[in-house]
Amino acid sequence: MKLTDIKTILVAGAGTMGQQTAILAAISGYRVVMYDISDEILAKGVEGIRKNGDRMVRVGVCTSDACSLALEQITTTSDIKAAAVDADLVMESIPEDPELKGKFFGAINDHCKPETIFTTNTSSLVPSMFADRSGRPDKLCALHFHDVTLSKIVDVMPHPGTSSQTMDLVKAFAESMGQIPIVLARENNGYVFNNMLMSFIGSALSLAAKGVTSIQEIDRSWMGVMHTSVGPFGIMDSIGLDTCWKVTSYWANKRNDTQAKANAAFLKGYLDKNMYGIKTGQGFYTYPDPIFSRPDFMTM
Amino acid sequence: MKLTDIKTILVAGAGTMGQQTAILAAISGYRVVMYDISDEILAKGVEGIRKNGDRMVRVGVCTSDACSLALEQITTTSDIKAAAVDADLVMESIPEDPELKGKFFGAINDHCKPETIFTTNTSSLVPSMFADRSGRPDKLCALHFHDVTLSKIVDVMPHPGTSSQTMDLVKAFAESMGQIPIVLARENNGYVFNNMLMSFIGSALSLAAKGVTSIQEIDRSWMGVMHTSVGPFGIMDSIGLDTCWKVTSYWANKRNDTQAKANAAFLKGYLDKNMYGIKTGQGFYTYPDPIFSRPDFMTM
């Protein structure tokens, strides 16, 4: 299999990341089949794809005309056999459960061509957890996206059984969609950026949860030394406090880390008040026009 | 003691931070007495003060004329009694040894006025380690600077015995020098920014030391998602790999942290080859014109 042989992409999972990767692949000239378990979910997925298409036009990834053409390249199905049969490459963004992912890859393996490449967009798992169940571990690796309208950085990560041909091909595929692949030499939970982000955010949360100083002072401190327009709490508001809580509590429990558990509880306090960040208009800051964006924030 | 009563500042320690805080205080209109243990060290300190003055003119903190006037406001002495007798506020930047700091504060306590305020610029220690030995724990707190030509962020941190009057006065003093004080509610090792920086840098070092991917890919990943002009390894080059190693190995040993020890060893490998970062022209990158500053770095 060469890059030029890749024509049809199976996007599995019609949620946030499935919607983003579907429109990105379609804009890049690929035929896209989006699969999920029900037509209701798929209908919502298509709606989300349109919204993501609009966002990509707004940020200048493509023109409005190119986006309309791309949308025509996307079909949907809840029939797993129909989804698999023409796929040259699979981008999987189904729920974060190794059992579910193993079952999914095992099921499509029976219907896909032998040369079809499998990729997973998992954030919190690693491909070796379900590589054997895919039936083609050498053709499976991670292709992990951050928000495609905010960044072009993607992680390309093998598990111990991934072939170098698969890695090369997936890297070339990412580049063909205008992405910047960060190639990992070996499997590492949390990839590259997410590891750094979580350490950084964990440290900021610890300072606040321990009552060392206020959220505003912590952001001010980072922004003032690093000369950035946003600090860790502003970043968490953009990620979503639910996502931050999910990742923080997952690792806190896995590592039985007392401070991380306190940090998760600190975040939970906001969720209990329906403060999820930018998406609900209120998180650590109030949106639009959060105070950290005001010119006098550093000295107020 | 009120802010307007503060006229004369004793800067203790003629090293990097002493030089920076001396010129900053002088530019801000204070008389400055710089103290260190020998006239040789003080002569080098004065040379460093002049260089820091030039840097401050270059970055626009003050005019060349104001800098020249400020330099006239700085005197030096290796006589601890002469250094202490007129001081209204002390900024201490002597070596990072709690024993040494306790001894120093105890010694000047005998010669200073009863109302004189003591501040420590320690990075790795906390004031409670030597507060009692100062003889005036209520008048002692931390006033911690980052590089004054790169950032105006300063930490103002109490120990459990610091009075609120001392905190208010030191905050006002920092503001009188055009700084942005980050006020901590309680003592915390590593303050605010340094805690976040060390977590972030520690995570980046772990990725490299474990061989997950290259230094360039790690920086690219951070720069590409956060949209910054420098990543963690570029930042370490500007801090100095010796300082990064010192802090990393200090915490690695204190916490008996295996991964942090591996990270310290990774940094040591560069020091052994005389690669200290920007200051030696070679660290993780080659200076001037490091590749991460080139327009094509993200896709090279």
Automatic annotation (TrEMBL), chains A, B:
Superkingdom of the source? Bacteria
Q: What class of enzyme is it?
A: oxidoreductase
Q: Does the keyword Oxidoreductase apply?
A: yes
Q: Name one Pfam family in it.
A: 3HCDH
**Site entry (Important for catalytic activity), positions:** H144
Query: A GO term (biological process) for this protein?
Result: fatty acid metabolic process
Query: Which residues belong to the signal peptide in this entry?
Result: none
Enzyme Commission numbers on file? 1.1.1.35
Q: Where is the 3-hydroxyacyl-CoA dehydrogenase C-terminal domain?
A: 190-287
Q: Which GO terms describe its molecular function?
A: (3S)-3-hydroxyacyl-CoA dehydrogenase (NAD+) activity; NAD+ binding
Q: Which UniProt keywords apply?
A: Oxidoreductase
Residue ranges of the 3-hydroxyacyl-CoA dehydrogenase NAD binding domain? 9-184
Family annotation (PANTHER family): 3-HYDROXYACYL-COA DEHYDROGENASE FAMILY PROTEIN, 3-HYDROXYBUTYRYL-COA DEHYDROGENASE
Q: What is this protein called?
A: 3-hydroxyacyl-CoA dehydrogenase
Origin species, per record, is: Desulforapulum autotrophicum (strain ATCC 43914 / DSM 3382 / VKM B-1955 / HRM2)
